[in-house]
Write a structure and sequence with these properties.
51% of the residues lie in helices and 0% in strands. With 433 residues, it is mainly alpha-helical. It has one domain: ADP-ribosylation/Crystallin J1 (ADP-ribosylglycohydrolase fold), CATH 1.10.4080.10. It comes from Kocuria varians (Micrococcus varians).
Length: 433
């Protein structure tokens, strides 16, 4: 349990309520976050792997809506294999040959070949399914696993006990390092808590405190990840990261070359933005605004209309400290997107992109509790393996726009954004009541 007065943003047995009015925007925003980070769009690895995760989880929901079980990890593995094959992997003869799926058929921008610099491609090219106890690459800890695992935090109706298992198993498909598995799971937990914070008006510091609390329940041996989360959860410890020479930050958290380091850097920058806002509000003496300091960017002059302001300020802090890690920027964008949303994710309901193969979701539980009833529920019976084989250096380049209008004019014809919004619409159609 959390301490008195702290909202329980991560509940063991209760999860996100998909009927919430904030939920569709949270889904769109989190899916757009890797795109909004501003890396080269064509074949972007983070964008594509995140999209593959979403496509796999949408498939799980389709099976659930048809009254049948599907193994989320198996679906994810097959989705990632499709990505690897599309990028030139020559799978062994005994590896599965998953056929073209919805993403490959209907989302050409998201399935186009592109660069692949991390451990994911290497692990997938072996044709073997990595598991927590039987890793393919035992030491793999490259940071692209973070963007790939973040969408698990959007799954409704599951508490952290189920979410941890799902995220760990997914990360372990390619990454055998317990540190990387724990860091990826911690990001999924952070996304989940940040979405819940929308309704309770909780601060990012409270979100991080909840992530650190629940991450301590993960049994993987990941002392560095847990230590860095605990450091960031302590206000004095994280403040010390930003004092003195610029290299103090990277000296203590790393450069972002691993999943753990990228997670810590991204969260540290976001929390520094919030802490600066809190100090300004407190020194101004405006007591009427102190309850909502977590909703301000740097100026403390009111709540941002989206997470773009917060993300821009956090990315600027990283740039000022010499951090060039794109994965750290992805963490900034995805957490800001989960908590406040992104301008580019704002769409009018009647104009939202529609997918050709959408189905109406079966009734879901309305209280966010884990359910084995008619709601799409992840987690298949033991032994089930049913997948789809049968069916900035500167903030301008970070892609963070100043307003929803700016986002609309800049990327109305961007095919990656359009396809991500369509994929989000599929998710909302399948997972919402």
């Amino acid at each position: 349990m959390t301490s008195p007065g702290t909202p329980e943003l991560l509940d063991r047995d209760h999860g996100l309520d998909p009927s919430s009015s904030d939920y569709p925007n949270a889904v769109r925003s989190v899916l757009l976050a890797p795109w909004a980070a501003g890396d080269p769009v064509a074949g972007n690895e983070a964008v594509q792997l995140s999209a593959r995760t979403v496509s796999a989880l949408n498939e799980v929901a389709r099976w659930a809506n048809d009254g049948q079980s599907a193994d989320p990890t198996a679906c994810a593995w097959l989705a990632y294999l499709r990505w690897a094959v599309a990028n030139g992997a020559q799978l062994p003869s005994d590896a599965p040959r998953p056929p073209v799926d919805v993403l490959d058929r209907d989302f050409p921008a998201l399935s186009a070949p592109g660069p692949h610099d991390g451990d994911s491609f290497t692990a997938l090219a072996t044709g073997r399914l990595g598991e927590v106890l039987r890793p393919v690459l035992p030491d793999a800890q490259s940071p692209e696993v973070l963007a790939r695992t973040a969408p698990y935090g959007l799954i409704p109706n599951v508490g952290w006990k189920s979410l941890i298992v799902l995220a760990l198993d997914s990360a372990a498909i390619t990454h055998g390092s317990p540190e990387a598995q724990t860091a990826a799971t911690a990001l999924a937990l952070t996304v989940h808590a940040a979405v819940r914070a929308r309704s309770s008006d909780a601060s990012l510091a409270e979100v991080l405190a909840e992530t650190a609390r629940v991450s301590s329940e993960i049994t993987r041996p990941a002392p560095r990840t847990r230590h860095l989360l605990a450091t960031l959860a302590d206000a004095d410890s994280r403040a010390a990261l930003w004092t003195g020479a610029p290299e103090i930050l990277t000296g203590r958290l790393g450069t972002g070359a691993t999943a753990t380091e990228a997670l810590a850097l991204g969260l540290a920058a976001l929390l520094a933005v919030e802490d600066a806002a809190e100090r300004e509000v407190l020194t101004s003496g405006d007591s009427t605004r102190e309850d909502h300091v977590g909703d301000r960017a740097l100026t403390g002059r009111g709540r941002p209309g989206s997470g773009d302001d917060v993300a821009r300020a956090a990315c600027a802090l990283l740039t000022d400290r010499g951090v060039t890690s794109s994965a750290a920027r992805h963490v900034v964008l995805v957490v800001a997107a989960a908590r406040w949303g992104l301008a580019a994710a704002r769409v009018e309901t009647e104009n939202a992109p529609r997918a050709d193969d959408q189905r109406a979701a079966e009734p879901m539980t309305s209280d966010g509790a884990d359910s084995l009833g008619a709601a799409p529920t992840v987690g298949a019976p033991a032994g089930s393996r049913r997948g789809s084989t049968g069916n900035t250096e500167d903030t301008e380049s970070a892609g963070i726009t100043d307003s929803a209008e700016g986002a609309g004019s800049r990327d109305a014809v961007d095919p990656v954004r359009a396809e991500l919004l369509c994929l989000a619409e599929q998710w909302n159609s399948l997972w919402r009541p």
